[in-house]
Write a structure and sequence with these properties.
Elements: H1 2-20, H2 31-34, H3 39-71, H4 75-86, H5 93-104, H6 109-116, H7 128-151, H8 156-164, H9 169-198, H10 201-206, H11 214-223, H12 228-252
Helix pairs in contact: 1-12, 3-7, 3-9, 7-9, 8-9, 9-12, 11-12
């Protein structure tokens, strides 16, 4: 474990901080980090935060009722449904995103079906809507599983006791179920928000490289312009947002209940 942590975590992080805090001559500088304040970088970061937040909220709204439905099924039933639900995750992430590109493009499957039905075409490819759709599709399971893991552990006797004391369904949910599910909810938010904030594949494919998120900007600095120093500096800024999000998750889920299946 120590070898793995050093080779694949500490060394890459060290290299990132070295390049991010130096210029091309190796001189210490904060210019790479402060570059986030430039209009183009600030716009990319703001759009990334906005789309990530929207995607996280949509995933939460979809995942919570789905997780509650799964907890009410019999053991054999929900085990099978969970396998079916996470089955797409076994496919390559890039292939799943390319599949949505094929579905959404102007001459794609969805528009072909709409054309046959004499309905208006759906033109959302290369727009923020397509990016949000790709994020929700790819990251929804990461919201469902922590929520399900917490909800399934809630003692049914506690819920029955609430009903026996005169609470209705809404009161039981607001006073019992929802508070007990908060660790899973915050864990799911972290597991969706972090990859959504750092993604560049989804925005590159479904946004047609026309919509630049901060992940795309960093990726271009490394692969196209060859400016590793600026790319690393922007990555450090992005890392601060991720660390802040993870700290909140740790505080709200001290016992790690939402992360064990």
């Amino acid at each position: 474990y120590l070898f793995w942590a050093i080779a694949f975590i500490l060394i890459p992080l060290g290299m990132g901080f070295y390049y991010g805090l130096t210029d091309k001559t190796g001189t210490f500088t904060l210019a790479n980090i402060l570059a986030i304040a430039s209009p183009e970088h600030r716009k990319a970061l703001g759009l990334s935060l906005l789309l990530s937040l929207i995607s996280t909220v949509i995933c939460l709204l979809l995942a919570y009722p789905l997780a509650m439905i799964l907890t009410k099924l019999h053991v054999n039933q929900h085990s099978f449904i969970i396998v079916i639900f996470i089955l797409p995750m076994w496919m390559n992430f890039l292939l799943r995103t390319l599949a949505w590109q094929t579905l959404l493009e102007k001459t794609g499957v969805i528009n072909s079906i709409l054309s046959v039905l004499h309905l208006p075409s759906l033109n959302i490819i290369n727009t923020p809507y397509a990016i949000v759709l790709g994020m929700v599709y790819n990251f929804l399971p990461f919201m469902v599983l922590p929520l399900y893991n917490v909800l399934v552990k809630i003692d049914k006797n506690v819920i029955n006791a609430a009903y026996d004391l005169g609470a209705n369904g809404i009161q039981t949910f607001l006073r019992i179920i929802f508070p007990l599910s908060l660790p899973g909810m915050f864990s799911g938010i972290t597991m969706v928000f972090v990859p959504a904030l750092t993604t560049f594949v989804i925005s590159k494919i479904l946004g047609g490289s026309k919509i630049l998120l901060i992940g795309n900007v960093i990726e271009q600095e490394f692969t196209q312009t060859g400016n590793w120093n600026l790319g690393s500096g922007l990555s450090i800024v992005l890392m601060l947002f991720i660390i802040f999000n993870m700290v909140i998750s740790v505080i709200t889920d001290k016992e790690g209940e939402a992360n064990t299946l």
